[in-house]
Amino acid sequence: MNLTHDELSWAQSLSEKLNEKYAQVRERSAEKIPYIAHDGVHDNKLLDDPNWWTNGFWAGLMWQQYKATGDRRYAEVARFTEEALDKCLEGYLGLHHDVGFMWLLSAVADWRLTGNERSRVRGLHAASLLAGRFNPAGTHGFIRAWNGNWGDNNTGWAIIDCMMNIPLLHWASEETGDPRFRHIAERHAATVMEHFIRADGSSRHIVEFDPETGEYVDDFGGQGYEKGSAWTRGQSWALYGFVMSYKHSPKPEYLETSRKVGDFFLQNIPEDGLIPIDFRQPAEPRWMDDIAGAVAACAFIELAEICGERRYLDAALKLLRALAEQHTDWDPAHDGLLTHCSAAYHNENDRHVNMVYGDYFFVEAVRKLCGDGAWLW
Ligand code: GLY
């Protein structure tokens, strides 16, 4: 769907600012795997948690910049992460359902953009790990979330976030010609449509199933405000996740679900375009999460294209304008970009901070508007 001349000029002005900023940030963070920029300086998860679920996003951001600018230095910095993550693949035990985020944006991106064979093998290895987390019990089965660090009884837990990891399974089937990975992705998505997406288009965060029978046991508010609420990042994972599933496997029910979740999100965007942590949180304090806005913007741009509906593109522009004008640190001397990212409603330490995955999705959205980004999902 086409932008007007003014909208395109605006997107290109953001692109120029991103190029100026990341030409400097990439040098300071060339041998880091950042998560949060504290006081303008990226931390380094490689030192304390190489298995951390966001560890692919810095590489993904570098690959988006590489695709847009053609500057090979971005590829070199991206490969630092990709190679550092090999010890996680070998270690196996610390890994989880987020291997999609970690390897789609690092190794699979490298394979897609440069044809590096070693990267393809890393991606297939990660896809096999994700497929190995599938529990076939029940009508459709589900991919198990986490590894017991949320309590002792989470063997039957699945989470909405995993919709963003299953593109790794679709990719593996497309890559190998073997449909078994796709079958798992489709069965997990069927469970999500049945048990996570509510009649009003909102999504639950965590659903517990009996790991022996696959029957629904309970659901939890997770990173949102409370049980029954609508954690906004979870809404955006559901929205973009079903858009991605539709792009890999064009089933009408995936498009229908992404529109249903998208319409719920759209109806709840506040006047100023800044997204709360939970659409059902109390009005005060006004805790916000920029990541939800950036992810939803990416999804709305794709949905506008798929459906040919301008209202989705308008929603994306509203979200991005709000971030770019009110919550973005454009200073190249500071490592972080978005300023009001929040890990969870009840996590008081990590609210209104910078987080690398918010920055990644903001960059992906700007690249989509400029038409110079990479499809890494
Ligand atoms: N996938 C975890 C989160 O969105 O915080």
Would you write up a description of this structure?
The protein is mainly alpha-helical. It is 53% helix and 5% strand. The chain is globular. The chain is built from 14 helices and 7 strands. The mean pLDDT is 97. Strands 5-6-7 form a 3-stranded antiparallel β-sheet, with no helix packed on it. The chain binds glycine.
Task: Please outline the helices and strands.
Elements: H1 5-28, E1 37-38, E2 41-42, H2 45-48, H3 57-69, H4 72-84, H5 86-91, H6 99-114, H7 117-131, E3 134-135, E4 142-143, E5 157-159, H8 167-176, H9 180-195, E6 206-209, E7 216-220, H10 232-248, H11 252-267, H12 290-307, H13 310-326, H14 356-370
Antiparallel strand pairs: 1-2, 3-4, 5-6, 6-7
Helix pairs in contact: 1-14, 3-4, 3-6, 3-14, 4-6, 6-7, 8-9, 10-11, 10-12, 11-12, 12-13, 12-14
The site of glycine has 4 residues, from loops.
Task: Give the tags.
377 residues; mainly alpha; 3-stranded antiparallel beta sheet; two-stranded antiparallel sheet; 7 strands; 53% helix; globular; binds glycine
The total count of strands amounts to: 7
Gyration radius over CA: 19 Å
What value does the average pLDDT take? 97
> Cofactors and ligands present?
glycine
Question: Helical stretch count?
Answer: 14
Indicate the percent of residues in helices.
40-55%
Distance between the termini: 20 Å
Strand order, sheet with most strands:
5-6-7
